[in-house]
Write a structure and sequence with these properties.
This protein is mainly α. It is 50% helix and 0% strand. The protein has two domains: 72 residues, no CATH class; 51 residues, no CATH class. The structure holds iron/sulfur cluster (2 copies).
Length: 135
């Protein structure tokens, strides 16, 4: 995203702070995109539960969702994100599915989770720029 595009998205923001007041990431003591919107330098666009309370309360109708998604293209994802992506591609779940998970599922009369073949995973991962996860 160019600086000009980001400027356009931020144009109507008055830095009133309402988004930060309702943000659960901020309530937990970390810094979400709402800190950036309030002029702070410490924040991460990846620290977010996607509750969109910030979006709902914004009196200016700032498209915070668009800002978060665009900022994620610029920022390195946190450690562990890559592993989660691989897990989702393999099984549809972010947490790893091992034989213990499937034994437990069978015990509860659930179908075992099917993992996609390693070759398919390789093909799915090939499209990523420089092998990096993109937001
Ligand atoms: S609530 Fe809207 S106007 Fe207020 S700081 Fe957040 S984005 Fe800016
Ligand atoms: S969507 Fe993300 S940034 Fe917005 S209030 Fe929820 S956790 Fe905070």
């Amino acid at each position: 995203m160019s600086e000009r595009d980001l400027d356009a998205l931020l144009e109507d923001c008055t830095q009133c702070g309402l988004c930060r007041e309702v943000c659960i990431v901020e309530a937990l003591g970390a810094h979400s995109i709402t800190s950036l919107l309030c002029g702070e330098e410490q924040y991460s666009s990846w620290l977010c539960s996607s509750c969109w309370r910030c979006q709902e309360v914004c009196p200016q109708g700032v498209d915070i969702h668009a800002i978060i998604m665009e900022m994620r293209r610029e920022e390195e994802p946190p450690p562990g994100h890559e592993a989660n992506l691989v897990n989702v591609l393999r099984s549809g779940y972010a947490l790893p599915v091992d034989s213990g998970v499937n034994s437990s599922r069978i015990l509860h009369s659930l179908e075992p989770v099917q993992l996609i073949p390693a070759k398919w995973l390789e093909i799915l991962l090939q499209g990523r720029e420089g092998g990096k996860t993109r937001g």
